[in-house]
Amino acid sequence: MQKLKLYDGKSLPGFTEDNVKELRKEAVREGMEGISPRYIQDKISNALVGDLGGACVNPFMVLNELESGLKHHALLKTEEQRKRFLEQLTTVKEDYEDLVKNEVQRAISADEEAISRLCANYIDNVKACTQKERVRNKYTGQDEEPDERLMRSIEEKINIPESRKEDFRREVMNYIGALSLEGKQFNYKTNERLRKALELKLFEDQKDTIKLTSLVTSVVDRETQEKIDVVKSRLIKNYGYCDVCATDVLNYVASIFARGDIRERASA
């Protein structure tokens, strides 16, 4: 899954562009193993036929078809093969679930100015912490100790443990320094882990104002519905959803919130 993300242009700790090129060179037959392209085509067709009354076919419908077809597929000679493919499908489902949760979270916390302010505040405190300095409070004009509570509230969003917080902060400052040496300006969007941490922090601060869990109830007040419509429009504009799919993914993520089953994985 990490390799898929690297191939898709994502940045992951410990990997460079040269590492990705080497990975590609080493895997000569990558993508050439499996059941067959025909199997995938057939299962997508089954999903389409099985939902003739619907407006769209979503990824879960296709994944369910792929999974059900494994039970009696002639090309699977052993139970071990079947188990391996089922495990891969489970991994894909989990990653897709994380992806849609992340997109909804980003749609809710899509205030780039607010994220930029939060990032600037975090970087100021990290810089002071790593250089053993104090931070100037712009409201009072007083020099204060770095805001440990703020830094940890952001770092914990991507599962940085207390024992590794100093390493992560130095990593961030080294990254900013390396960009500066290349004549480039730091932007939180260029660092995948930091971007996710900031967005999750802002989402946490804002999620209670939208009451997303109300989507799974039969009654939604006008104010909440207006906020939900804004999120839906962002999903359509920023992530390529149609109106039907934006509604479906909001209802799906809302059901996860209703169960209290929100996982935040740093690798996503």
Could you state the order of secondary-structure elements as H and E?
A: HHHHHHEEHHHHH
Q: Any idea what the shape is?
A: globular
Number of domains: 2
Counting helices, strands and paired strands, the structural category is mainly alpha
Q: What proportion of the residues is helical, as a percent range?
A: 55-70%
SS summary, helix count: 11
Radius of gyration: 22 Å
Major beta sheet, strand line-up? 1-2
Tell me the distance between the termini: 10 Å
Low-confidence regions? 262-268
Number of strands: 2
Mean pLDDT: 84
Overview of the molecule:
Helix 5 crosses helix 9 and helix 5 crosses helix 10. The chain contains eleven helices and two strands, in the order H-H-H-H-H-H-E-E-H-H-H-H-H. Strands 1-2 form a two-stranded antiparallel sheet. The longest helix has 30 residues. The protein is mainly α and about 270 residues long. It has two domains: about 110 residues; about 90 residues, no CATH class.
Quick overview:
The protein is mainly α.
Keywords summarizing the entry:
268 residues, mainly alpha, 2 domains, disordered C terminus
Task: Map the helices and strands.
Elements: H1 2-7, H2 17-26, H3 37-50, H4 59-69, H5 79-108, H6 112-130, E1 135-136, E2 143-144, H7 148-155, H8 165-181, H9 192-210, H10 222-239, H11 243-259
Antiparallel strand pairs: 1-2
Helix pairs in contact: 3-4, 4-5, 5-9, 5-10, 6-8, 10-11
